[in-house]
Structure formats: C-alpha cells, structure tokens
Amino acid sequence: ISKTPGVMITQYVMNLPEGKSTPDFISKPTPLTIDEGKLAVFKAVVKGDPKPEVSWKRAKGNILEKQKFLSKYDESTGEYILEIHNVTGAETDTYKCHAVNEYGKAVWTTTLTVNEGKIFIQHTLKHDCDHLFFIVHVRQSLLLKVERADGESDEKFWDAMLDADRKDYERICSEFGVTDLHSILKKLEEKKKERAQNNFILSVTLLCTLQDGVIPYDEDEKLKNDPRSIGRTKHFSTNGLMQNGTGLYEGDVDEINLLSNVDFVIKIQETKAKEREDALFECVLTHPLPKITWMGKGSNLEDGEKYSITVSDHKLIHRLLIRDCQQLDKGIYSAVAGITTCSAWLVVEGDTLYNLAGKKIARKTTLAGGARIDLEKVAKEQQIKYRQEMEKILASVKAKHDGGQLKEKMTLTTGGGDGKNSEITEPDKNAGDIKDKSDTAKASAQPVGRKGKTKRKNSKGDGTVSKLDNSGCVTKADVQLRVDDPKNKKHTKSGQVDFDKVTDPGVQFIWGLSDVSAIINETAELTCKLSSEHCEGVWFRDNKKVNDHFSITKDGPIHKLVITKCVDEHSGKYRFEADGRKTEAMINVKDPPRFHPEDLSDFTEPVIIKVGHNAVFKLHFVGFKPIKIKWYREGEELHDDTNTKIEKCESHSRLLLSRCQRKDTGEIKIKLKNEHGFTEAVSQLIVLDKPTSPLGPAEVTESSAAGIEFKWRPPKDDGGSPVINYIMERQQVGRNTWKKIGEIPGVPCYRDTDVDRGRKYCYRIRAVTAEGTSEVMETDEMQAGTLAFPGPPAPPKVVSAFDDCINLSWAAPSNTGGSRILGYILEKRKKGSNLWTVVNAMDELIKEKKYAVKDVVEGMEYEFRVTAINLSGPGESSNPSEFVFARDPKKPPGKVTGLKVTETSYSHFVLTWTKPEEKPEIQDEARGYFVEIRQADCLEWSRCNSTPIIMTSYSVKGLKSMDMYWVRVIATNDGGESVPEELSNYVLAMPSPVRPKFTNNKMKTFIVVRAGNSVRITVNFEASPRPDIMWLKDNIPVTKRVTISNSDGSSQLLIPSSERSDSGIYSILVKNLVGQETFSTEVRVTDDPKPPGPVQLEENVPETVTVIWEPSPDEKRDDRLHYTVSKLDSTKRTWSTVADRLFNNKFTVCNIMHGREYHFRVYAKNDMGISAPSESPTWGMEKKKSKFVINAPTRRDCDLRCAPSFIVPLKLHSAPKGYECHMSCAVKGNPTPRITWYRNHVSLNTNTNYYTSNTCGVCSMLILRVGPKDMGEYTITAENSLGRAECSTVLSVQGERKHSHTDI
Q1: Average pLDDT over residues 572-596
Q2: Which residues have a Cβ under 8 Å from the Cβ of 272 and sit 6 or more positions away?
Q3: Are 806 and 851 in contact (CB under 8 A)?
Q4: Peptide bond before 697: cis, by omega within 30 degrees of 0?
Q5: Peptide bond into 505 cis (omega under 30)
Q6: pLDDT tens-digit profile of 1230-1277?
Q7: Which residues belong to any copy of the Fibronectin type-III domain (predicted)?
Q8: Nearest to 1279 by CA among 1288, 1271, 1287, 1289
Q9: β-strands 1095-1098, 1105-1109: how paired?
Q10: Long-range contacts, 222-226 (Cβ 8 Å, 24+)
Q11: pLDDT given for residue 671 in this prediction
Q12: pLDDT of amino acid 183
C-alpha cells in the first residue's frame, strides 16, 4: 500500500526479498491548467529497490514526438520530468507516470488542461461586484516606479528584467551596473506580482469602458481591417474585443488571465461510492461565477442524464452529481475556475450491497470525504466578507469625491490610426469640453483592439466616458477624453492614466438581471436592485417596451417583472433601464416532462403487497410531445413479459407487476425525456412474506450450574415485517420428546435456568412476524456447567507508582470457567515476606480490571497478584507482578557513555556502552536501553528492540551489506527516556579488513581425471571485504566452457565433461583491498594408455637379452607415461616383472639361461591405468629330454571391438526428501563409450548439483539432497563408434527428511 494517496501499486511477487521493495511515489505530478502556447512540466520523484524505470504515457495518444514531448531525469534533485512544449488543445488529456522494477509497478494519473484561444469573462463583468470596485479604486501602485540599486529610477532596467528569462538576469544586471543580484531577485518577484494585479485591473477597466458604447466601433469595413489600428498597452492586449446583446465580452489575454484572482475556498475531495450509488463533488469559490468547467478523466462534462451540474443562487457553491456510478466512472475529476483548478479521485467499489432479502438496496448519494461540510455557511461568510470590502471601497471613493482629494492619475496609451501614440487623459477641474491639440484632429479616440479607427462618441454623442458601477453594469460619468495631436513632440509614458477628478457616480445597480429558464404555464421572475429607492425604470422585451400583460412591481430599490403563466412567446431578451443605466437577461421558456404534484406524491409512497399479489404503478404527466417513457426496477430497465406489463399513453403510463415474489422488493423508477429535458420519479415496492429461519450457530455466552445463556442472529430476511416473538422448544439430549418453552420477546437471546447440572440440551427456535412463522433453526448441543472455576488472570502490571499509591491493571483470564466473571480479589506482599494480604474485602469485589492500592508504606517494595471469581467461586491466582517501590516517579536517566562498535560483518554489528551515572534529583538509574539505527540516506530512526534490554551490549542484525548506518542508544527507566547518545561516525556493514587466506589445508595440488568425467576444484578462503576472484589456466583466464561459482567464503571451478586439452595448471587469485593470495592445482585429464608397438629381442652380451619395443601412441601427449617389462620362464608358470617405470623404449634382461624358452611382455602405464601387453617373440630353445613333439597352435589376433551394452541396468529408486540418492549401472563396449546422464531428457553433465563418474564401466551418479525438483525419469546413454545404448529409471521423492542417512 502506498503512503502517497492516489498511487496504484501492483506487486508481481507474493513475498518480497529482504531489503527489496516495489516502486512508489515520493512526489507525484500535479494536475496542470495552462494557457495555449506555454510550456507544461510534470515532475515526479520515485523510490524502490531495485531502482525503478520511469516512463510516461497519455490516454488519447502517444508521446513519441520528441520536439513536443521531452522526458528527462535530473540527477541533482532525483526528479523525473516530462516537458510538453508549445501546448495546444490537442494535448488536453490524462497522463500517467509508470515506475516499474522487477517486483512491481506504481502508477500515478494526472491531467493537463489547455485554455484554448479566447477566455470568456462575461460572468466576471456581470456578477462579480468585487472585481469592478477595483476599477473605481485605482491605486497609485499602477505607476511603475522602479529603483535601481543606487536609488536612481530606471524603468528600462526593470522592463528588461521582467521580460527576460532567468538565465539572462546576470547579464542584464552587469549591463546596468547592478551588483546586488540577490536583493534584485527578491524585488523582481514583488514586481511580477504587482504587474499581474495591475494588468488585471487595467484589462477589466478597458472592457467595462467599452461596454456602454462610449467608444463604439466604426462600421466602416476599411477601418476594421486597417492593420495600423491595433491598440496596445505595455503588458496587455485585447484582440477582437466585441460587444454582444447581453453585455458579455470575449477577449484574448496575453501574459495574464482575467480570472487569475478566482480561487477555491473549499476544494473537491476524494469520494468513494458503491456501484449504482450517486457521487457528489462540491466546491466553494472566493468569487461568484455563474459557471465553471467540470472535467472527468480529461474530458469536459455536460449537464444531462448522467451528470447533474448545479450552482447556488449566490454563484459560490458549485456541484457535480454523477448518477448511477459504474466501474467505468472511476478516475480523476477536476473543477476549473478561470486558471485555477482542483482535482479529486472518484473510487467506485465493486462489491454490491444487498438488503436482508438478498436484493440491492436503494440507490443513495455519497458525499466527498464521507461527511457533509456546511458549505452554505462557508459561502455566506465569503459573501459577507467581500460585501464589506465593497462597502469600504465605495465609502472611500465617495469620501475622496466629497473632499475633492481624488488625485490619482493614469495615462493609457493607445495606437492611433496612423500608427502614432495618442494620449487619453481626464481633464482637470476647469476642463469641460474636448480639446484637440491639432487643428485637423476631431474629437475621436482609438479603442483597444484590432477593429480599426473609431470615433469617440457615446450613444448621446456628448463625448463623455461611461464607467462601471459596483454591480457590474455600465454607468455614465462626466469624464471626458482629450486626444493629443500625433504631431506633438511631447509624449507621455505608456501605461499611465490621470484622474484629476471623479464626479458623482449617480444611481448604480447593486445587482443586475440573471438569465432565467422558465417552465411553460409556470411563473418566471426577473429581479434587479438599484442603489437608490427613488429611481424609476423601464422594462423592455426584445427592444420593445413591455405591455400590461406582465406584472411589474417596485419594492424600494428592488424592481421585479413577473410572468404568471409562461408561454413560448415569452422567450426573449429582457432589459431594464434606469437613469441611463441598463441590465439585460434572457428568459427561455421550455416544456419539459412534468408530473402532477398530487400524483407524484401518491406515486412516491411505497407499495406494500403480499407474496403472489399484483403491484400497479400509474403516473400522469404533461410536456412537449413526443415523450420517451422507461420503467426501471433496481436500476434495470423493464420490458413486457409474462409478469410485467407496461402501458404507455400520451398523458400517463402504467406498470403492472404480476404474482410478485419477495425478491421483487426494491426501487421502482419511471424516466421521462423529451427535447426540452427529462425527469424521473421513484417509488418503492415492498413484497411481504413470512421470515426466513433464525441464523445460527447459537453462541453460548454463559454455561454454569445455574443455567445456560445463549444468543443467535435474527433471520436474514424478516419478510418485510419486524420480528415480534421467538417460539422456543427444548430437548434433553438422549430423549425423544421436545418441551415447549413458549414465546419470548423478539430479542435474539435466551437464558434457561431450569437445567440440571452437567446435562446437555438442544433448542429449536422459530421467528414470528405479522406475516407468519418461520422455519425452525435447531442449535447444537449445550451443556449446563458444573462447578468450573476460572483460570488465572494475567500478572498485574504497574501503571504508575507514588509514595502513597500504586496503580495496577490486569487482563481477564482466558478461561472463565463457562460463566461470567463476577469480580476480582487483589493481594499484596512485601518483598522478603511470605504472607499475602488481601487488598479488598470479599464482599467488595473489584469489578474493573484496574485498582489503585493506597495501603502502602513509602519506600517499601511490593508485589501483587489477582484472583478471578465467577458463579462457581474464586479461581487460581495469577503469577505475581514485578516488584515496585512505593515512591514518587523517577527522573529520566542520563546519556550512556563509551558507545563503540566492537564487531562488524555484512549483516550485523555489535555495540557496547557504559551505564549512565546516577545523580540524585537530576537523573536516576537506567533500567534498560533502546538501540536505534537509520540508513545514511534516510531521515527516520528505527528502533531495533521493542522492549528495553538490560545488558550494555547489543547485536544489530538484518543489515544490508556495505550500507552505511547511523547508530544511537537511549537509556530508559520508569521516569522516561534519556537524551540519545549517537556515534560520531557512521558504521559500514562489512567485517573488519582481513587479508585473503585459504582455510582448507587438505587441498590437492595434483588431480588426475579420466577424460569425459567432470573436473571439480573447490577452494575455501577468508577475506574482508568481499574479494575479487579470478581463475587462470596456465596463467591465462579460463575459457567459457569452465563454470565458476563464487560464494562468501568459497569458489568452485567445474568442467562438466573433461577432455585431454583441459590438462594444465589451474590457479585461483583471491584479491581485496588488504592483499591477495593464490593457489595452484595441476589437473591431468587422461585415459587408459594404448599398448606399445611390436617388441624385438637382441642378444648383445651373452646370458642377456635386450628387449626393444615401439613407443605407445599416447607417449607424445602424456609426459607421465612409462613402461613395465614382464618375463615368463619356460620352467615357471607365472609372469614376473623385471623392470618398471621405464621412460625409454628398451631394456636389457640379465640371467638368461641356455636351454630355456623366454617370453616377454611390455605394458604402457600412466596415472589412470595400464595398457594391454605387447608380446615378444620366443627367446631360446628348451633342452630336449625325449622325443616329444608339441605342435603349438597358430595364434590369431581376436577383434575385441563391440558396441555399447548395459551389463547391469538402472533400478527404480524412491528416496525420502533430504536424503542422498546413489544410482549406478555397468556398461561395456570397445572403444570405451562416452557416457551422458539425462533427467526428463535434459542433460545433467553440466549441472553442479549432480556428481557423475565412470570407473571401468561402472557409471554412477550421486544426488546429495533429494528434493521435489529431482523427481522424474533419469536416462543414461553410452555411445561409441560402433553404436549407442541407453537405460532409464524413475526417481520418486516421498516424506520429510528424518535425522538418519540412507543409501539407495
């Protein structure tokens, strides 16, 4: 679960490894509302181990266009940034930030809203009186006076700074000679805020000045299209400014937003709703607006059947109601007021609620936050606040006018028709007419816009300028305009307006007219309020004076126009004029579908029927034809079928539900819709039936010798009527009869006191309502208790101790003896005494599980025990509590001293410290210690031990290897905790530095391996920190066919299937920061040698024979190969060895006797074995004793080659889990076959978990620890040049490992 609200986390694995985590958001991207053409920036900070990969996506497109979308990472801040350049309306969308690692992903959703083109401000001019008062109360802050660092006023410097990018600040300051850049940057921020406020005031002033038509547009098309007629101010421009019939304006705003001062007093909050419920979002604004923009998941929402958008009468409270919520509706919803926005989540929960009958409950509305805030109260306070400010400003203006002290000046520079600047100022007290500084110049002025030249006139042609009153309506003031001659050499600075005098504003509108949507044949009312009670006015409809068919009233300053029965002809534009001022509004008469109030009241009453009866719903309506009619039950539309009949007429509709069942209970709704609107009415159908049986199982709350008390749950469905009574029956176990107990009140519990001790009983329960009796619910067997005493409570705990009182608490016994606990007896005992004293009397049992013992002696040490008492009597006493002194609370201990680290490793370190000193009245003795750690990149401390430790040493475990940790120790006692004592340096999770050394003294320096078998060299060592390990063969790094496995204290080299080329010297180099160590082993891969070549005999010396033979073919590739010579004397029957370990190819045999025959054999030998012999010819002649002739048979060489075959096959094996398993078989073949082992047709020759060997045709495989993963079919294949053979078996694993050893 994320700590950041709104983040959705998906975990890929069930259990996370220690130290690993799924991604999460530390800082999430915020929703943006931005003007078209600007730069939008989303920023996010994520965490997770391993470090997550971050990507950005959008809902309605992709972000592949690199010139538009730029994704990057800021290493200094750890922020992932998405920049969207030159935004347009096409980028208005929902954006998602994905953070993914191998253990999960985190997703955060945000929105981008782009204000396209023109910004409408009609509601500001018409309804927000607060804004318009600022127009009258123009302050001198509009005069842009900027001071340089040396005090000199320099507008050029500040203009350059205000318009420049941040990277150019230093260059501009150097050009103007400004050295204090820090103070300039602070003042620059104030200037930017001031400019934004001034631009807002100036923009509204210009728009309101144009509203009354004092500077009307010239209808000359040539002037409209003249490019020289573009009007500008320093920082504000209005493009295409125009006036419509209702006094609403539209303009393009550059660098400012006219609604920038609108904000949210109360923002919309996250809402959780069940499916089919309604969800309501509410917000309160600081300024009244008739309409704001609601957005859902990146799209604008419109008022209709799905969404209901409403606004309060004072235009401060805005609401969005989402009807009939579904899973598709969940997401982010936003409220946009001007350039200010707020967003919140709508969470739709999928589990559907059901009532007791198993039907969905009636739909309801869910509010944000789960509770309704008094929005009306907040809105009223906001309205009163701004009304008071308006009154203060108006009073200030009037006071200055009466005293003749309003001297503020403001000059507005506009572009003249010839491209020159013209100055619009207000005349002084003596100026009353329009004066031209040019003989040819006429009394005209250029409007702010792109419509070309216009004449300076108002509707009367008197050359006066209209102004705005505090109601947002256009009024006229005697302020005249003077246009400077464009040829005049004197020019005033742009952006200034001078007010030398303000005349009496006259009658003003407190509030103007508002648009009204009226319903046909009903009353419509238009109301406005003037500042004077004595001013009369005139009403107009579509520019014609209204006739007597309307009701026009005047109540003081309030003027009303009332239409009693509206018809279509009453739709139109209405205007009210008074004393040269006017306000306008529209009346739209519609004919939506409507119900008759009396019929609607009857329809909303619930329809209550019994099961099997018919239900009828009928409702009359009126409205513009045609009207679409739909009936719904529990949100599902109804159609004609066997049990449902729907009658639809022009003026009414009727619904008939036949043979209703209990499941038909629910909400019945009718919806009507035409082109003018829609409406709906809701009723309830209640079908009555007998209740279902009570719900079990029954729960025994007390079982004692005095009785049995139990409870159960009411029926799941009461049939629409409340349970009145329960009918009880009882049966004693072992008997066949049921005893009627009678009826009890409708409370689902019963206490049976008429029981025999130790007997068992069963009960039958039926629920009774006005509609009938339910089916029976039978309980399980219940036994009346015997004398069962309660068990011992938990030992008492000392809450607090004082010199005259000790407060204790304890927990109830887990075994109550089958009956309720009546109370407790508390006992005390002094330390060193054997006598327990009762604290409370037997007739004054302690009802609660706490007690204050006041009968104590100051300074004495006590222990306490407690005994529980139930209906059977007192039970066993608890174990004694800890000893406690009767004295006032202690002082917290002091800081520990001598904190140091004595041992470290990759996963733990050991701390030791010295007990803090005890100082009376300052710090008491420490009773225990807490150890806390925090990682170097974390700010939060985590406590290693939950309970205080007594020892002054502690082993901190579970550390992350090579991480840095800060450590501190806190002493504690009954008085509290001490100030932490922290190590001055961090602790690195690694052992103390150790130079590498090998720990196994029995490592072999020479290994002989038969070709085809595996080579395995394991080396154990000690080193800290973890060393780098390198294996070499003949001083060259080993090849990829050699497998290297490294762990904390060992390294293993494995050659799965060796060859003669693998022979050589293998060396391991273990190296770390402290030093290095090396070890070498010679590995010789060989096979049985081939026999030597032909043998020849020579006699060079009498009585000697020199045996000469051709070398074995293996002699060149095996430098350890040697020869053995054997001799057979004709007088003997056994061969004798005459020479061994011969490294040459001849040998002289001595002591050769005449008259005897000799035979010689030569063998080739190496580290693996001995070859077949090479026979020599016969030497010498045996002495003839008689005429006996032996015909020796002719010797023929035999072909011993054969294809592989298994002499002894594999057997079936079944091994317990965790045991060793040894498989073996015997194979023959010449040449020697190549052996390969398989498990489930996968080769095992490269798997280090299986040890294989081949010795003289006996093939073996050893599995050290058999597990479930080793189950399957095992196959061994033998292959040579003459053929191939295979043998298979099956290994099954059973049971858990036992503490014994078996060899299969």
Answers
A1: 89
A2: 347, 349, 366, 370
A3: no
A4: yes
A5: no
A6: 999 999 999 998 888 878 888 888 888 899 999 888 888 888 999 999
A7: 693-789, 792-889, 892-992, 1091-1184
A8: 1287
A9: antiparallel
A10: 222/452, 223/417, 223/451, 223/452, 223/453, 223/454, 224/451, 224/452, 225/452, 226/417, 226/452, 226/453
A11: 93
A12: 74
Place of tokens 């070890």: 1079
Instruction: With CA atoms as reference, report the closest residue to 407 among 342, 498, 344, 322.
Output: 498
3-state secondary structure of 141: helix
Q: Residue 78 — φ and ψ, nearest 5°?
A: 75, 20
pLDDT (mean) for 687-710:
88
CA dist 1291 → 1239, 1267, 1273 (Å): 10, 11, 6
Residue 566 phi, psi (nearest 5): -75, 145
Length of the chain equals 1304
Give residue for tokens 């319903």: 519
Q: How far apart are CA 698 and CA 714, in angstroms?
A: 11
CB 23 within 8 A of CB 3: no
Cα separation, 406 vs 529, in Å, equals 28
The mean of the pLDDT values for the chain is 79
- The whole-angstrom separation of Cα 673 and Cα 111 is 34
State the Cα angle at 157 between 152 and 161, rounded to 5°: 140
CA distances to 50, 644, 986, 996, 1212 from 1026, in Å:
21, 81, 20, 9, 45
pLDDT reported for residue 1189: 66
Query: 653: pLDDT confidence band, cut at 50, 70 and 90?
Result: very high
Show the CA angle centred on residue 1047, arms to residues 1045 and 1048, nearest 5°: 160
3 state DSSP class of 625:
coil
Which residue bears the tokens 């202690």?
890
Least confident of 153-157, 634-638, 1172-1176, 1270-1274: 153-157
Q: Strand ranges (DSSP E) for 1132-1233? A: 1136-1142, 1146-1149, 1158-1165, 1174-1175, 1202-1208, 1213-1216, 1221-1230
What pLDDT does residue 1293 have? 87
Retrieve residue 86's tokens. 């030159």
Report CA 580 to chain centroid distance, whole Å. 61
